[in-house]
Amino acid sequence: MELNRRTVIAGAAAAGVAAATTVGGTAHASGSGGRGKPVRTLFGRLADGTRVHSWSLENGGTRMRVLSYGGIVQSLEVPDRRGRYANVSLGFDALEDYVASSPYFGALIGRYGNRIGKGRFTLDGTVHQLSVNDGENSLHGGARGFDKRVWDVEPFTRGSDVGLRLHHTSVDGEMGYPGTLRATVTYTLTRDGDWRIDYEATTDKATVVNLTSHVYWNLAGESSGSVHDHELSLAASRYTPVDAGLIPTGELARVAGTPFDFRRAKPVGRDIRTPHQQVLYGQGFDHNWVLDKGVTARPEHAATLRDPSSGRTLRIATTEPGLQFYSGNFLDGTLVGTGGRVYRQGDGLCLETQHFPDSPNRPSFPSTVLRPGRTYRTTTIHSFGV
Ligand code: BGC
């Protein structure tokens, strides 16, 4: 059973638990669960002199830092069962590291989350060649996707919510995509400490869109080691098998009797060494699960992640039909995270709500086409508990 977030925070404060932690060199105020206006500080400058800001937000016991570069969640702190805070998302201390070598830590992904085969698709009879950045394929929007853009950030407080509205205009032809796409992503922290993401986009020419967020979760705290003991459940009876290049074959395969069966919670690492062809292709889990609920008008339950050691839980609800569960397979011990420690394989995992990879080439998958006059809208809610 999950405790109400405000009860936990109040309980920790009453017990006198010191809840202050340090992230990126700056101490946050202790865990009052309080809400304040988002605070902006200079995080760094890009090579061309462009300023990148860091925004600190807090509400309902959840604290986060967001960068204007890539809309990156640089840290997200939540309490454990004893009220002790930890940063549960992988990231870097310095802007240079995000620019030079980030595997999309915490970033907003666009125009197209995950892969498009051969970086090519046909829309209304026209072939579009995209920026290819993953073998012969296009991954996460191409060489310079939304994760590498400086977003305009507008803070807000509304009722009991606080948040940021992030805007980016992607020009016609950027990374090979047709149409000028105006994207607005709203990050909201609610009074219960939920992190809600609302994605919106419009276009002036028919195009494809698939926006997501690429936070690497480690509910025991980033730099605490592997997430293979975390228990995961996914509300999905099917997944989309892939070829060696991680492009879906088009099949929707049943998870029953395979390592992909997360319908009941199981440790992430339990079946990760099973010599199943799909696990071998992904070097672990790196697949799209077909959520049983499909596309929904309102966010519905998709996944639950739980760390038995700290008691922290994350529940994800979404309007999207798919979820990419990526078990951090390509973290290879070459990157040093915010905590000053090296990230190795499986030190974080991603749960990316999305439409299915390569949908522009798969008419049988839910469509990712956006046309002028229509608004792309999706919502994903992350709820934290213990
Ligand atoms: C993909 C992985 C990829 C990773 C990039 C995930 O969303 O599914 O294949 O390596 O992003 O860090």
Structure, described:
The chain is mostly beta strands and 386 residues long. It has a single domain, classed as Beta-galactosidase, Chain A, domain 5 (Distorted Sandwich). The chain has three helices and 32 strands. It has helices spanning 5-14, 95-101, 277-282; strands spanning 22-23, 26-27, 39-45, 51-59, 62-67, 73-79, 85-87, 107-109, 115-116, 120-123, 126-129, 138-139, 152-158, 161-170, 181-189, 195-203, 207-208, 212-214, 216-217, 231-234, 238-240, 253-254, 266-267, 286-290, 300-306, 313-318, 322-326, 335-336, 342-343, 349-354, 369-370, 376-385. The strands form nine sheets. The protein has a nine-stranded antiparallel β-sheet with strand order 13-14-15-16-32-26-25-20-23, with no helix packed on it. Beta-D-glucopyranose binds next to strand 27 and strand 30.
User: Which overall shape is indicated by the principal axes computed on the Cα atoms?
Assistant: globular
Bound molecule types: beta-D-glucopyranose
Tally of alpha and pi helices:
3
CA-based gyration radius: 20 Å
Strand count, sense and closure of the main sheet? 9 strands, antiparallel
Helix content: under 10%
Got a strand count? Answer: 32
The top level CATH class name: Mainly Beta
Question: Could you tell me how far the N terminus lies from the C terminus, measured between alpha carbons in angstroms?
Answer: 8 Å
- Report the portion of residues in β strands: 35-45%
Predict the CATH topology.
Answer: Beta-galactosidase, Chain A, domain 5
Order of strands, widest sheet = 13-14-15-16-32-26-25-20-23
The overall pLDDT, averaged over residues, is 93
Low-confidence stretches: 1-32
Can you tell me the number of structural domains?
1
Going by helix content, strand content and strand pairing, the class is mainly beta
Label the CATH architecture. Distorted Sandwich
Describe the oligomeric state of these chains in a short phrase: single chain
